[in-house]
């Protein structure tokens, strides 16, 4: 398998669209070996998708990304493990151990069947009181002094 990490100063770029470089790795039999490093070309994520295809990338590990970019990557048959954070070394170690979910950004969690979290999902994702997969939408937060926490402010 060939994977790419969207990098920024030896860390996973917080947002894919703000990456400085694309780091490529070959993965076989639990071993991860560096295979290349390219600066992000001009032209934005649409151009980057073509570059990832030319490198035979099968998996992109990145921080956040917009749905349009995720759709472009999916259309190119590139699997995406979004909402990942940490140093490149820590993420590669977690990937090699099949524990990429350890590197999910705070406030996100892995959806069933996803590698590392197929999209952002907050702890409020399954609530039916106006909260959803993207949080509480200003409802005060659950368990943080909000109306549902049971804590009354005096």
General description of the model:
- The model is unreliable at 111-154 (pLDDT under 50).
- Helix content is 18%, strand content 21%.
- The protein is of the alpha/beta class and 154 residues long.
- It has helices at residues 45-54, 67-75, 88-96; strands at 2-8, 11-12, 21-28, 31-39, 59-61, 79-81.
Q: Major sheet: size, sense and barrel closure?
A: 6 strands, mixed
Annotation field: number of helices: 3
Task: Please write the string of helix (H) and strand (E) elements.
Answer: EEEEHEHEH
**Quantity of strands, as a count:** 6
Q: Unreliable runs, pLDDT <50, ≥5 residues?
A: 111-154
Q: How big a fraction of the residues is strand?
A: 15-25%
Structural category is: alpha/beta
Average pLDDT reading = 78
Q: Tell me the distance between the termini.
A: 57 Å
Helix content: 10-25%
Rg from C-alpha positions? 17 Å
Helices, strands, pairings?
Elements: E1 2-8, E2 11-12, E3 21-28, E4 31-39, H1 45-54, E5 59-61, H2 67-75, E6 79-81, H3 88-96
Parallel strand pairs: 1-5, 5-6
Antiparallel strand pairs: 1-2, 1-3, 3-4
Relevant terms:
154 residues; alpha/beta; 21% strand; globular; disordered C terminus
Short description:
This protein has 154 residues and is of the alpha/beta class.
């Amino acid at each position: 398998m060939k994977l790419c990490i969207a990098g920024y100063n030896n860390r996973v770029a917080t947002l894919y669209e703000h990456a400085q470089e694309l780091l490529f790795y070959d993965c076989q039999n639990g071993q991860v070996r560096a295979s290349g490093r390219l600066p992000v070309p001009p032209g934005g994520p649409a151009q980057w998708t073509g570059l990832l295809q030319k490198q035979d990338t099968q998996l992109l590990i990145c921080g956040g990304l917009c749905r349009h970019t995720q759709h472009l990557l999916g259309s190119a048959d590139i699997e995406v493990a979004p909402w990942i954070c940490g140093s490149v070394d820590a993420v590669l170690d977690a990937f090699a151990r099949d524990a990429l979910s350890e590197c999910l950004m705070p406030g996100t969690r892995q959806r069933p069947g996803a590698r590392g979290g197929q999209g952002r999902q907050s702890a409020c994702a399954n609530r039916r009181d106006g909260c959803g997969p993207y949080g509480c939408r200003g409802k005060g937060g659950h368990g943080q002094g909000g109306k549902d926490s049971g804590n009354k402010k005096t």
